[in-house]
Amino acid sequence: MAGPMKARARMQGNYADVRVLMSHPMETGQRKGRDGKPIPKHFIQNLEVRLNGKTVIEGEISQAVSRNPVFSFRIGGAKAGDKIEISWTDNNGDTNKTETAVA
Amino acid sequence: MDVTRRGVLRSAGATGVLAAALAAGLLKPERAIAASWNKAAFDAKSALDALKSIGAANTQESGDITIEAPQIAENGAVVPIEIMSKVPGTTALAVLIEKNPFPLASQFRFMDGALPFVKVNVKMGESSIVRVVAEAGGKYYTATKEVKVTIGGCGG
User: Which residue ranges make up each domain of chain B?
Assistant: First the structure.
């Protein structure tokens, strides 16, 4: 179900610029399928960013986030080599995660 | 900890396993709170109701919140929005698209060095005020920007 997820983190001065791409349909529940029936809502609800195992950002998002969401975050106090983990959970309980090292 | 609460809920199947895990302290209550999703706020159909649901009924205009978004978005399905708060002690940011059917689009909490900054692509059904609310020291600050949409994005 969950497609590929990519993340990249790079030091920009005193913070790590973290970019993450998630593969997800982010269905709003307002579209109709070919059969004329509404396509059920299916979207990421929660996401979490961890720096060396410690949660630094928690997000709650709605179906208004675009399909295949892309986020940028800035984490102060990070340094090259630090581990960044990002995970999400959608309204069906599906989850996915990825990790990267700060470059 | 690789065992997510939901993963356990799904794979356990038998409630006995879950009870055992709870008893063993494998599933910390904090974890459950961390994965919360403010249904009332996200289901709110007006920006005012959404603001009330996130506790931000009283906000103060602030010039220390920046919103970078296109003045005219040709495709409402993908509108890039970059937000940042310079209000000292900002711990959370919320994005509301006032004319969307459900205005609250996202909210983020920042801890332990994470800067109050987010860039995200959102869907906009029509031209609308984009409102950002920052929480700092228990108070709420806000700024807005109008984005005109040529083709609405709620169908796509």
Answer: 5-34, 39-151
> What are the chain B neighbours of A67 within 8 Å (beta carbons)?
77, 156
Q: Which residues of A touch B122 (CB under 8 A)?
A: 64-66
Give me the pLDDT at residue A4, please.
87
**Cα→Cα distances B98→A28, A44, B132, B144, Å:** 16, 21, 10, 10
Residue A36's contacts (CB-CB under 8 Å, 6 or more residues apart) are none
CA distance B128 to B70: 12
* pLDDT tens profile A8-63: 999 999 999 999 999 999 999 989 999 999 999 999 999 999 999 999 999 999 99
CB contact set of B15 (below 8 Å; sequence gap of 6+) = none
* Overall pTM surpassing 0.95 (yes/no): no
**What ipTM was assigned to the predicted interfaces of this complex?**
0.94
* Residue A55 structure tokens: 């949660």
In words, the CATH class of domain A5-101 is mainly beta
CATH number of the domain at B39-151, please?
2.60.40.2470
Over residues A49-70, the pLDDT tens digits come to 999 999 999 999 999 999 999 9
Contacts A9 to B, Cβ<8 Å: none
User: Do residues B74 and B150 make contact, with C-beta atoms less than 8 angstroms apart?
Assistant: yes
CA B43, B44, B48 angle in degrees (round to 5)?
Answer: 160
A15 interface with B at CB cutoff 8 Å:
yes
Residue in A45, A65, A95 closest to B122 by CB: A65
Q: Residue ranges per domain, chain A?
A: 5-101
